[in-house]
Amino acid sequence: MSDDQTPGLGKTSRELARQVLVHGPISRADLGNRLDLSPASLTRLSRPFLDRGIFVEAPATAHGAHRPAKPLDVHVDAARFIGVKITGDTAYGVITNLRATPLADASRALTSAAFDDIVAVVASLADELDRATAGAPVAGLGVTIGGHVTDDGVVTRATFLGWHDVPLAAALEAATGLPTCAENDVTALTIAQQWFGELRDAGSFAVVTVGAGVGYGLVIHDRVIKTPNTGLGLGGHIPLVDDGPPCFLGHPGCSTAMLASPSIAAHASQQLGRTVGYGEVLDLAGAGDPTARSITDTAGRALGRLLSCITNLAMVDSIVLAGDGIALWDLAAPSALAQLTADRDPQATPVHIVIDPSGFTAWARGAAAVAITRALDSLRLTTPAATLPHAFGG
């Protein structure tokens, strides 16, 4: 049995969906060229999407003496998707259309790390987001967390919450009635960038996140790289500075010690002799405080070294920088870029850096993107939109 005859989407059908999502409205001729498909194969593969109302035919365009062609596009409002990012103290959520465009956002404080309590908070947040926007019913919920998550949505390790082997996706699906998937937060953000981000046509690129921790995602030949070690935070402990401060695991000068917002705040508090938060460190550095400025410059050089390690070893020349601590880039860019240049071969291709400044919205959007790709994989969407199940009945 070929890949495209198996249940759900095969590789070619999945790429067809991604091409129309990314480039629609797009002509069938262009799609055929991009995917190396005959007109008959393209018609066969696109039919399920048209039947379910996921694809629509855009107004016909004439090409000389040829019969007017009807480009394919996605019905972006055919369904809505909710994405939620869980941190140590807050659940951040967005509700999006089929292209992962946020329509509304909301957040809820977490007063407990208990699994059942957080499931209840996320379910309530999903209900709030559903009621905040009108339109098609919600077709899926994606939730992400910093930790190791299995393909069936079991969080095997989320040390910041003290979770081990908890069925996050199943519990939320039972609580909301929505098809639910759970994923590592950096992997989800990487999927969102691959499908909907500025580098969606790059084919190969890396994603680096800075914030409460340091994350690393990789796309090679249009495939998000995921291994059994994904979610263990290995990218957060790459040694960058020989005499740098230690991270919480005792690694001196690693990426977490040099770039994570709690580490920067702790280092600045020690140097300044008073407690300061991450935002205040950046404000002080921006105002010219020499101690704070020295810390952000050092962090910039460490970031440049991390980027050079990634680009040199993975042999990619495009990187997305994102995360809730991304404001560091406004101050650290000169020192980061200087270090990156110094660590690259002079004849190597220039590194293209894309900054995603949306902070926690980017994390939540990543969760929604995973829900979208899972819904497309299973061809769960059905036309008309009104026939889709509504999780909350409102």
UniProtKB/TrEMBL annotation:
Coiled coil: none annotated. It comes from the Bacteria. This is ROK family protein. InterPro entries: ATPase_NBD, ROK, WH-like_DNA-bd_sf, WH_DNA-bd_sf. Belongs to the ROK (NagC/XylR) family. Pfam families: ROK.
